[in-house]
Design brief:
2 copies of one chain form a homodimer.
Chain A lengths: L16 H20 L3 E2 L5 E3 H4 L4 H7 L2 E2 L11 H6 L2 H8 L2 E3 L4 H10 L8 E10 L11 E10 L5 H17 L3 E7 H10 L6 H8 L2 H4 L1 H10 L4 H11 L5 H11 L4 H16 L8 E3 L13 E7 L6 E8 L13 E7 H10 L13 E3 L7 H13 L4 E3 L6 H10 L4 E4 L2 H6 L2 E5 L5 E4 L1 H8 L4
Parallel strand pairs in A: 1-5, 7-8, 12-13, 12-14
Antiparallel strand pairs in A: 2-4, 3-4, 5-6, 6-11, 7-9, 9-10, 10-11, 14-15, 15-16
Chain lengths: ~450, ~450
């Protein structure tokens, strides 16, 4: 009987050692910068109660949740007469109490409310974990992918927004990814809708504004018209979205136009304060963009989005301030602000642009050749000494042909081969071969460690 | 309307920052040692096709798999007439194509077979990821928990077993966890069953032997009798399991008794070779224990189990050699050997015995007090300089009462408070306060960094 080749579910991925080394370089960088800025790690379970997740991501999001069927005799709770009349949509909530998390934001809000009595606010947490969405898989979109979130909750200070911008700059500087950071403020958008006389249509308007980058201003204007936004309102909104000039030019113009909107003027104040914190060099690449809306309606203040330069991959980080994320779980009046790095997209940008530093990928540094027989104790001593010096190393486990052992080093990109055979043993030395250059030298193991150890 | 307090599914856990710091200390230690020994990371998806998982863990295991209900109209595939007559057990496989992984071993076997053409053997991989089991939750047993596995596949050399023992010793030495490592060989157990005339009953026998530690030898003998193992066979088996003396004494006795069993004698050779690799100091705490069986029937050679001393928590690491793990996926004749650290149990042991080194837990090192107003740029400069020096630090985001800011530092165990108010700004200095001792000093920020930076 032939056994079918095994596979994994559509939209999921295995990660090979090389891919993992690259991914870990990204995760480690983000983690280091988060902790450098005082954010602390938390983790939540992969599965949440469905009641925690449902209704938080819109109707479409509810459909994209992965639901876990209850254990044991899950049908007993349904009732046979019921069964025949139920469709899948009605049956699912009766037989599934749990689902896989869809993002890290809702579980974090749940976490904060559940543990509010043990948490000291302001609470600065980061969380790097996978999320799952039953989306149709396509290029760059997966059903399992990692999010890397940092949020501070319980502080209204705009210093938090400022520091999150610094974190973004620091992470991408360490990763060597060229980028531009777009910032805006939801209160400015609300103010603009207000002075255009369509304040109550803010959700429709921001949803459309969000598409400017993709479909262009003309299409957006058509859509707004189709949605019943009056021409006179569009005539007020459009020129503001197209404002040019320096950040301070834009602010000046806005404070004139929004002077009659209290919300709008609060937006002006917030944006001025935030821009004021950015020292000259820090403001490089930070662009105040009034057309930045982001579809997420829970944002109430700052909005942040980062785009990769030299790439068509688009948004690689985003975030903003939300004033009532925990309200739905029973804790109101708790403002938060956060960002999320899209690790998978950053990976794609870095791969496209060849940005992974080979030296920082932590594969094995040295392979000790196995000649077997009497040389084994000597070779074991060599590999033990290398490890004591902190050098990641292996003794090839079998005493097979040298060609095979070299081919193993090659395939695994191991930069050094250490030969510790009979001649070397007799001389109390080793022969070291640098795979890149092909150069060979006889030396004591200690001189090798002294000379190269620090760089491995 | 009052909103019910949010909760998480039974048997799952949230991890707070302090718990995460401790857990990361364990994971980082294991990861560092694995890479030091040349093991490379891989990851597999949380969900596997159910066909990959079913039938691999016995009937009981099949029941404990978390199954994910298919997306969309999952009932359409079932048929209405069918529905009424189906029980939960029959319906589940019709509406669930995927399940959450139950361990890391089966996904790894699937990975090796699926990617066999891209893998260079021997393949040394490690994998640190959560697994899910719908077990009844109880103290120390969770429905989501982490496994930390290392396996080498495609090499028969016993040097692999030897190095895995060194890895175990190195990890627990770094974690400061007292332990004893029990080793045995499945071939010795098979040989014993053979010479006792009950070779075909090896599975029943090892299942019972596995219980000696829990229920004692007398109960095990009763069970063996109840299972129909003849008294004459038990009379051969029992004294062997109770062998005392040094490892070499045991080996000598065994090679006499097993001389007529080819399998048993291969076990003697393997065990002798492995014990021979262990240098004097390395064999400290490594105990050859013939009563170690482990219930897992896929082991065919070495068996390893590590128990924590000073604790009733029991097994904290285990492993062994298996000769045909990938056969079920269509790749036969591929021998592997591996170990798995139980991170959650190691955590419990370390907490019980107060083994977490405070200095290695990576919380924030310094809190800069926020006085607001004109001092903000000065304070921002201070926190920026601390971070440039690699010191994990925060500026308290709001300019609230000092008492509140100190209480935040206290709650988050931040060891240093840096005061950068008007007086300090005028003097170009900072006041540093060590929270533990309560001592305060005025100094330049650079002297603080020079004096304490390296230790933070």
């Amino acid at each position: 009987m032939s056994i079918p080749a095994p596979s994994i579910p559509k939209g999921t991925r295995d990660f090979s050692p090389v891919e993992m080394q690259r991914r870990n370089f990204i995760f480690d960088t983000i983690r280091e910068v988060y902790t450098l800025y005082g954010y602390q790690p938390v983790e939540t379970p992969a599965m949440e109660n469905l009641s925690t997740l449902l209704g938080k991501y819109g109707d479409e999001g509810d459909k994209l949740l992965f639901k876990i069927v209850n254990s044991g005799d899950f049908l007993s709770a349904v009732g046979v007469t019921n069964m025949e009349s139920l469709g899948s949509a009605e049956l699912a909530p009766l037989i599934c109490d749990r689902g896989l998390r869809y993002d890290l934001t809702v579980p974090f809000a749940r976490f904060v409310v559940q543990h509010r009595n043990k948490i000291k606010f302001p609470f600065k947490r980061y969380q790097i974990q996978p999320v799952w969405r039953a989306d149709r898989p396509q290029k760059g979109r997966y059903r399992e992918f990692y999010q890397c979130d940092a949020d501070v909750i319980g502080s209204n200070s705009l210093l938090n927004e400022y520091e999150l911008l610094l974190i973004i700059k620091e992470v991408f500087s360490r990763l060597n990814v060229s980028n531009r950071i777009l910032i805006n403020n939801r209160k400015l958008l609300s103010g603009i809708a207000e002075v255009a006389g369509v304040g109550e249509r803010i959700t429709d308007i921001t949803t459309e504004i969000d598409k400017i980058g993709k479909i262009g201003m003309n299409e957006v204007v058509k859509n707004l018209t189709a949605k019943g936004i009056p021409e006179s309102s569009i005539a007020v909104i459009r020129p503001l979205l197209e404002l040019t000039g320096s950040n301070s030019d834009k602010m000046e113009r806005l404070s004139e136009i929004l002077s009659n909107s209290a919300t709008g003027m609060r937006g002006v104040e917030e944006m001025s304060e935030l821009l004021g914190y950015l020292k000259e060099k820090e403001s490089d690449g930070v662009i105040f963009d009034l057309s930045l809306a982001r579809g997420l309606n829970y944002y109430t203040g700052a909005i942040i989005e980062v785009k990769a330069e030299d790439s068509d991959i688009g948004s690689i980080c985003g975030g903003g301030r939300y004033d009532d994320l925990t309200g739905v779980f029973g804790l109101s009046d708790t403002s938060g602000v956060g960002i999320s790095f899209g690790a998978d997209r950053i990976y794609d940008v870095m791969l496209q642009n060849d940005l992974f530093p080979q030296a920082k990928l932590t594969g094995t540094s040295a392979l000790v050749v196995n000649f077997g027989g009497d040389t084994t104790p000597y070779a074991l001593g060599v590999v033990a000494a290398l490890r004591r010096a902190g050098i990641r190393s292996e003794l090839y486990p079998d005493s097979v042909r040298l060609k095979k052992q070299f081919s193993y080093a090659n395939a695994n990109k191991i930069p050094w081969i250490i030969v510790a055979g009979e001649d070397e043993m007799a001389a109390g030395k080793v022969k070291v071969k640098e795979m890149d250059s092909g150069s060979e030298r006889d030396m004591t193991l200690n001189s090798f460690i002294d000379e190269y150890g620090a760089s491995l």
